[in-house]
């Protein structure tokens, strides 16, 4: 199935694809784009106008935003990098988080102008419904986005995967789901378009829930980003920024749990190092933890898995598994030192069913097993003599804690 990738996946590819320094911006008005499909696009433009005016920067706004040829086959990193250099100098409304922050990209970012996140949404006055025979709650989530990754951590639930964040909210409004995990601005946008629906919003306990909107540009635009940061600071102090973003700000009741569970960017960076598989020095690991042995895998699988990862996963998860807008697949947010809530089998089942995002399930069982071997190796597990099979990976109940290799 071909489906246009979500605006968050657009941001991931944009960050992964690098950014061009625009000669146009040095001599002309700064060209500002927004991300296609983002429910905050109008807000992003309004904030950009006010910030750039405060900074004394002349700007023009690209009406079509960052886009490709309008087809349904998604937007590649190459197309996005070309659009940034050809059409845009600055992206308003780029999403960043402490877990998937695009810090490994060639882009630079301003401070955040709107803190938002993924929330749990129900109807404020739900209609009575017949309980499901199996007792499970139907939870809606947006396909190929952090909301899907948060939703699959829910217990005793079945999932209704929708193609857009608007449809995810609509699933609750129309009764297709009892609850939704969705980006909060999508709730605001939906309720403004459909004021007859009233929603209750609560926090989600996930490190993937906390996000900020920022301005993003190429590495050659540092002077511009410095002026933007100064303007944001002034607007924050005099209340203009709060006035612009009023109505879009995450409620305190929905922000507290997500924020407290999200590791800070600096603490995440301090907790682990990143290296290539054959680079000098492995990822630093803590002592081995209990919970049973991980299934065996060999070095050949690791090498093949690394190749598969580079082809199908790095665009969203980062070349070094550091996370861009899809979560990091290395480090404490993914494989903590102890007490992981994810099992190896759970990760494998989710990956083999839902990934890669552009073509879920496109790999063979053995390819998914080889990819799992690469993830295990990268997170500190040693190779052995036996091959990892799809069945062994799927049946593993071992928690995915940081492996024992030093």
Automatic annotation (TrEMBL):
Keyword Heme: yes
InterPro entries named in the record: Cyt_c-like_dom, Cyt_c-like_dom_sf, Solute-binding_3/MltF_N
Coiled coil: none
Signal peptide coordinates: 1-25
Protein species of origin: Paraburkholderia guartelaensis
Residue ranges constituting the Cytochrome c domain according to the UniProt record: 300-379
Key words of the record: Heme, Iron, Metal-binding, Signal
Lineage: Bacteria, Pseudomonadati, Pseudomonadota, Betaproteobacteria, Burkholderiales
Name under which the protein is recorded: C-type cytochrome
Keyword GTP-binding listed: no
């Amino acid at each position: 199935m071909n489906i246009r990738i979500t605006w968050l996946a657009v941001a991931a590819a944009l960050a992964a694809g690098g950014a061009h320094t625009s000669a146009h911006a040095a001599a002309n008005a700064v060209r500002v784009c927004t991300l296609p499909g983002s429910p905050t696009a109008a807000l992003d433009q309004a904030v950009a106008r006010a910030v750039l005016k405060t900074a004394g920067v002349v700007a023009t706004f690209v009406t079509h935003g960052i886009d490709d040829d309008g087809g349904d086959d998604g937007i590649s990193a190459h197309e996005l990098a070309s659009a940034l250099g050809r059409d845009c100098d600055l992206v308003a409304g780029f999403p960043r988080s402490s877990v998937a922050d695009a810090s490994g990209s060639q882009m630079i970012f301003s401070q955040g102008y709107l803190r938002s996140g993924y929330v749990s949404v129900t109807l404020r006055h739900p209609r009575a419904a017949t309980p499901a025979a199996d007792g499970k709650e139907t939870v809606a989530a947006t396909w190929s986005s952090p909301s899907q990754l948060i939703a699959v951590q829910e217990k005793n639930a079945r999932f209704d995967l929708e193609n857009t964040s608007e449809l995810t909210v609509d699933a609750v409004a129309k009764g297709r789901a009892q609850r939704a995990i969705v980006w909060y601005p999508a709730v605001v946008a939906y309720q403004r378009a459909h004021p007859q629906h009233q929603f209750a919003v609560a926090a989600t306990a996930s490190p993937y829930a906390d996000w900020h909107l920022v301005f993003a540009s190429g590495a050659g635009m540092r002077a511009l980003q410095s002026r933007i940061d100064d303007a944001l600071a002034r607007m924050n102090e005099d209340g203009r920024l709060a006035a612009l973003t009023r109505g879009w700000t995450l409620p305190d009741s929905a922000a507290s749990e997500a924020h407290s569970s999200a590791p800070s960017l600096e603490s995440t960076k301090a907790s682990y190092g990143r290296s290539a598989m054959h680079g000098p020095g492995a990822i630093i690991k803590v002592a081995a933890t209990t919970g049973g042995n991980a299934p065996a895998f060999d070095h050949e699988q690791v090498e093949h898995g690394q190749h598969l990862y580079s082809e199908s996963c790095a665009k969203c998860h980062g070349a070094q598994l550091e996370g861009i807008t899809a979560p990091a697949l290395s480090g404490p947010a993914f494989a903590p030192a102890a007490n992981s809530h994810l099992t190896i089998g759970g990760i494998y089942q989710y990956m083999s069913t839902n990934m890669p995002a552009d073509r879920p399930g496109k790999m063979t069982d053995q390819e998914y097993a080889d990819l799992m071997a690469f993830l295990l190796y990268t997170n500190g597990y040693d190779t052995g003599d036996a091959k990892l099979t799809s069945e062994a990976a799927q049946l593993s109940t071992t928690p995915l804690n940081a492996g024992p290799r030093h």
